[in-house]
Automatic annotation (TrEMBL), chain A:
Protein name: Macrolide ABC transporter ATP-binding protein
Sequence ranges assigned to domain ABC transporter in this UniProt record: 7-225
PROSITE patterns: ABC_TRANSPORTER_2 (PS50893)
Keyword Chloroplast belongs to the record: no
Organism: Actinocatenispora comari
Keywords: ATP-binding, Nucleotide-binding, Transport
A single GO molecular function term of this UniProt record: transmembrane transporter activity
Automatic annotation (TrEMBL), chain B:
Species classification: Bacteria, Bacillati, Actinomycetota, Actinomycetes, Micromonosporales
Coiled coil regions in record: none
Protein name (database record): PadR family transcriptional regulator
Gene3D superfamilies: Winged helix-like DNA-binding domain superfamily/Winged helix DNA-binding domain (1.10.10.10)
Residue intervals of the Transcription regulator PadR N-terminal domain: 13-84
Source organism per UniProt: Actinocatenispora comari
Length: 227, 180
């Protein structure tokens, strides 16, 4: 593992009011690498993910994505990156309830300017890869939790992002369906060569990653930052 | 991973004989296929176990085919063998409480001697997670039987990790109690 990291967070700090959510967190993610961010609840995992993805700005420290200083970049640059280079999977509530599942998966392509037919054709292929072809025409409210998460993974991957950010993607699922989502998510990421930042407090979920970074009280330990 | 303990090899062979008589080598093959995983049975083990079962009246020789050598014998389960098998399958296994753990001992010794106990826990966590990754990769390549065997190990390792997490969170309190 000597490749130059694609995404680096360096000594990140972030407080919410009086709460220090991050107090010196560092992480480096290489291309096509799957890294689990682990730690107890409230330790700062989600805040770290939000800083890395350019959703939140750290109070101090730096986030570098490729050549871009994400922590200093203009809002427009950050949101453009999120749309074109990043994919997101959260615990729940991320699908648009009024759209069918295939329309949900096609949405990122539509927003990027792809016409409806080709966008939905690609979306269907992704639903098939995620073993969720049967829910294409249903609305999110009509599918099970596991199916919904597989649709969400398809939507995160449909633009073939360089980095997928997944925050407790199996948090609302039982172990059987959680494992299924993890197997399909990691298979898909390995196929497209995407890096994955996987936030989880569950060891069996983290075991799908290549390695883990532990966050405790907003800090990470012994992280060597190459590059 | 050895999934059948030495104690239960005899009972496992009885279970494999219940559907019908088998030769020793055939029995070994069936055993290895279902339970052997990384630890196939030795022929010596099979025949030693069978002769013990024979002596105890739990199996009998069905027929001795012409020729020489142990493989000519076919073993069949007896009524007493079925009773033993029935009893074993119906009895719950003793839940293993793991009340004395080497790791706990190490943590206490570290606290007593002023060594960094948190590092012991961290090192263990890293080792556990590494094994869990190996098993998860093996699961991806394996059939359903292999997956279930790996899952059993994964759930146990996860339980250890929960204990590590809880102990890490309570280390200061433990130190106060231990170092008095
Ligand atoms: N938007 C917010 N406003 C106020 N406090 C927050 C906010 N987000 C996170 N926090 C606090 O920051 C700490 C870290 O939160 P978080 O990053 O969500 O942890 P984790 O994901 O590990 O559970 C917690 O104490 C949490 O309450
Ligand atoms: Mg969180």
């Amino acid at each position: 593992m000597t490749a130059t990291p694609l995404l680096v967070g360096r000594d990140l700090h972030r407080t919410f009011g009086a709460t220090p959510a991050l107090a010196g967190a560092s992480i480096a993610v290489r291309p096509a690498e799957i890294v689990a961010v682990m730690g107890p609840s409230g330790s700062g995992k989600s805040t770290l993910l939000h800083c890395l993805a350019g959703i939140l700005r750290p109070d101090a420290g730096q986030v570098r994505y490729g050549e871009v200083d994400l922590s200093a970049a203009a809002d427009a640059t950050r949101s453009a990156l999120r749309r074109t280079e990043f994919g997101f999977v959260f615990q729940f509530g991320q699908l648009v309830p009024e759209l069918t599942c295939v329309e949900n998966v096609a949405l990122p392509l539509r927003l990027a300017g792809t016409r409806r037919r080709p966008a939905e054709r690609t979306a269907r292929e992704w639903l098939e890869r995620l073993e969720a072809a049967e829910v294409a025409g249903k609305r999110p409210g009509e599918v099970s939790g596991g199916q919904g998460q597989r649709v969400a993974v398809a939507r995160a991957l449909v633009t073939e992002p360089r980095v997928v950010f997944a925050d407790e993607p199996t948090g609302a699922l039982d172990s059987y369906h959680g494992e299924q989502v993890m197997r399909l998510l990691t298979e898909a990421a390995r196929r497209t060569g995407a890096s994955v930042v996987l936030v989880t407090h569950e060891p069996r979920v983290a075991a799908y990653a290549d390695r883990e970074v532990i966050v405790r009280d907003g800090r990470t330990r012994d992280v060597e930052l190459v590059g | 991973m050895c999934i059948v303990t030495v104690m239960s090899i005899g009972l496992t062979l009885l279970g494999l004989l219940e559907p019908g008589p088998r030769h020793g080598y055939d029995l070994k093959r069936a055993y290895d296929e279902h339970f052997g995983q990384d630890h196939p049975l030795h022929y010596g083990q099979v025949y030693a176990t069978l002769s013990r079962l024979l002596k105890n009246g739990l199996v009998e020789l069905e027929a001795v085919e012409p020729g020489a050598g142990p493989d000519r014998k076919r073993y069949a389960i007896t009524d007493a063998g079925v009773t033993d098998l029935d009893g074993w399958l119906g009895r719950p296994e003793q839940p293993e409480p793991y009340l004395s753990s080497t790791l706990y001992t190490k943590v206490v010794l570290a606290l007593l001697s002023g060594r960094p106990a948190a590092e012991i826990l961290d090192t263990q966590r890293t080792a556990h997670l590494a094994l869990m990754r190996t098993l998860t990769r093996r699961k991806a390549a394996g059939d359903l039987a292999d997956q279930l065997v790996c899952d059993h190990a994964l759930f146990h390792l996860e339980a250890d990790l929960r204990w590590l997490e809880l102990t890490t969170a309570r280390l200061d309190a433990l130190a106060q109690e231990v170092v008095r």
